[in-house]
Amino acid sequence: MSGVLRRIWQSLFRGDVSRVFVILILLFSTAITLLLTGLQLWRDYRYELNVLDQRLEQVRISNLESISQSVWTYNLSSLEIQLQGLVRQQDISFISVEDGDGETLLSVGEDLDEDALQQSYALTYIHRDSPRLLGQLHVKASLQGIYGRLLDTFVVILITQAVKTFLVSMFIIYLFDRMLMRHLRHLVDQLGKHYSRAKPFNIERSVTEFNKGDELNTLVGSLNLLQSTIESEHQKLEKLASFDSLTGLPNRIQLKEVLDTRIQAGKSFWLGILDVNDFKNINDTLGHQSGDQVLYDIGLRLKCLQTPHCFFARLGGDEFACVLDGDAPARTIADTILQKFEAPFLLHAVQLQLSVSIGLVSFPDQASDAQQLMKFADIAMYHCKKSRSAFARFDPQLDEHSLNNLTLMTDAKQALENKQFCLHYQTQIDSDTGAVSGLEALIRWQHPTQGFISPDDFIPSLELSGDINALSCWVLEQALTDYEQLKPHLSKPLALSINISALNLLEERFLTSVEAIMLRFPARPTLVMEITENALMSDPEYACTMMQALVKRGVEFSIDDYGTGYSSLSYLSRLPVSELKIDRSFIFDMETDLRHFTIVQSTVQLAKSLDLRTVGEGCETAISSSILKDLNCDKQQGYFFSRPVSMEELISHFQSMDGSDDTSLSLELMSDK
C-alpha cells in the first residue's frame, strides 16, 4: 500500500512547475475547505441539538398537564389523540406513557432508532391539594433528520468551495505563467542553447517601464554575472590543469598533448628527461621553501629556451622534460640545456652550483608512442645518474637491464618468502694471537635458473621493493641459530658480524624486530652490525639515534669499506661505532702502492686515537698479513685465512681440530675450499 501511495505521490509531483503549483494550491485549498466546513458543520450540529432540546421542553410545557389529566381519568382515547399529535412533530419519533408500576399504558411511533435524544417527564395530578404521581412520559427525538440536513449542507459547501478553489487556482496559474513561468522558460531555453555551444554568453530579456525593477531582471543580471565569473574561473582551472603552478611551465598533461601531436605529424624529434642531482640535500639543508625557489629559478632558465621547436615541461618534484626537433644531434641538445646550469643559483646570498642528468630518446628511431618515449627517456636518465655523466642517449641494452632488474626484484622477494637464501661465514683473525676471534655472516643466493647471484645485485632490488627489513631480520635470526650449532665446538665465544642496510636504520620497526629476535637468544655472542659509511650520510642524525638505541640493547657497530666513502670525521666521532673495516682495495696492493700503505697506516692510527678496533679485509697474502700486524691492525679477514664457507663446513673444521688449538691461524682445510 505504501508503495502505491509513493508512486502516486511521485507521479503528481514529477513535472513542470505549473503542474506542481496547481496541485499544491488545490491540496492546500482542499485542506482549508475541509477544516472550515468541519467547523461549520459542528456549529450547525450544536444548533440543531439546541433546537431539539427546546422542542422537547415545549412538549413538556404545553402537553404534560393535559396528558396527566387523561391518565388520571383513564381516558385512553383522548391520550392516544394527544400522543399522535406529538409524534407528528418534527424529529419526534416515539412517545410512551407508563403507569406508576412501570407498565406501559400507551405508546405511539416506532422505537427503532438507536441514535436518538430521549427525555422522560413525571406525570402528576393534584387531588385535594395533594400531588399524586401517576407515571412517566417518555419522549424520543431521532437525530437522523439532523444528520441528513448536515450532509446536505456539507455537499453544498464542498461543491461550491471546490468550484471556487478551482477557478481561483486557474486564475492564479494564468497569472503565474504570464508573469513568471514564460520568462523562466525563455531563460532556460537560452541557457540550454548557449551551454550546448560551450561559449561565453549573456542572457537577454526585454526591459520595459513596468518590469525593469522586478525580480526577473535582477535574476538575469545575477545569472550573467555568475556566468562571467564561472568563465573566468574556468579559464583559471584550464591553466592550472595545463601548467605547473610553481614554475609556470607546462605540466605533464600538456606534455602528453605535445607528444601525441608530434607523433601524429610523423616528424622526428627528441624527448629528454632532466633530473636535478642531489636536490634532496637542498630541501633537507635549506628547507622546502628554498627548494621551491630553486625550482622556480630553474623554470625561468628553461623558459628562455622555449621556442616553437623546443618545448619544456615540469613533470613533478625536480624532474623536467623537453621536446625538441630531431635535426640536432643529442650532444648539441644536451649542451644547450647544460649551459643554463653553468651559472650558479643565488639563494639567500648563497651561491648554489647545480647539475642535472639528462636522458634522451628519439622518435621514431627508438620509440613509437608516448608511453615508450617516457619509459626509455627515464631509463636513459637513471643510467646517466648511475654512471655520473651529464647526459645519456637511450640504448636498447639499458631497457633489457631494467627489465632484468624488475625480474630480479620479483625473484628476490619470492626467494625471501621461499627461504632460498643461505648464509656463509668468513673468519676474522686476531693479529696478535693468530686465533679466530670472529665470524662474518655473508648472504648467498643460488637462483633456480640463473645460478649464483651476487648480493650487490639483489640487495638493491630488495631495498627498492621495501623488503630489506625482512631480509636483515632473517639474516640476524639465521646467524644466531647457526651460532647455536657451532657453540658446542668452540673453546671460547666468537664475535658474530652481519651486514645491514642503511634503510634498516631509518625504520623503527627494525629496532623492534631486532629486540624480539635477541630475546629468543639470551646466550648470544657479541653481535656486530656492519654498515657502509656512505649509507650513514643519507640521514646521519636519525641513523645515530637508531644506532644508540641498538647499542643499548647490546649491539656493536662497524663501519664497513672504510676509506671509500665521503663521511665527515665529525659525524664519525659522534656515531656509537666500535670498529672500522679498512676497504679491501687498500689492503690488496699496499705492498706495492705507498699511497695505499699510508692510507691504511693513517686509518689505523686514527682508529686508535678514537678508541676503535680496526679490521683489514681482503687480506690475501702473508706479506699483507704481516704488514697489518706491524701496523697494529686488530683483526684481519680475507682469503689468506679462509674463504666464506657454510656452517656445516665450519662445524666440520672445528670438529676435526678437536683436542688441538681450534683458534690457531692454521686453517688449511678452509683455505683450500
Automatic annotation (TrEMBL):
Where do the TM regions start and end? 20-42, 154-176
The record ties this protein, via PROSITE patterns, to: EAL (PS50883), GGDEF (PS50887)
Q: What CDD domains does UniProt report for this protein, alphabetically?
A: EAL, GGDEF
Q: State the superkingdom.
A: Bacteria
Q: Name one Pfam family in it.
A: EAL
RNA-binding as UniProt keyword: no
Q: Do you know which NCBIfam families this protein is assigned to?
A: GGDEF
Descriptive protein name: EAL domain-containing protein
- Species of origin: Pontibacterium sinense
Phylogenetic classification of the source organism: Bacteria, Pseudomonadati, Pseudomonadota, Gammaproteobacteria, Oceanospirillales
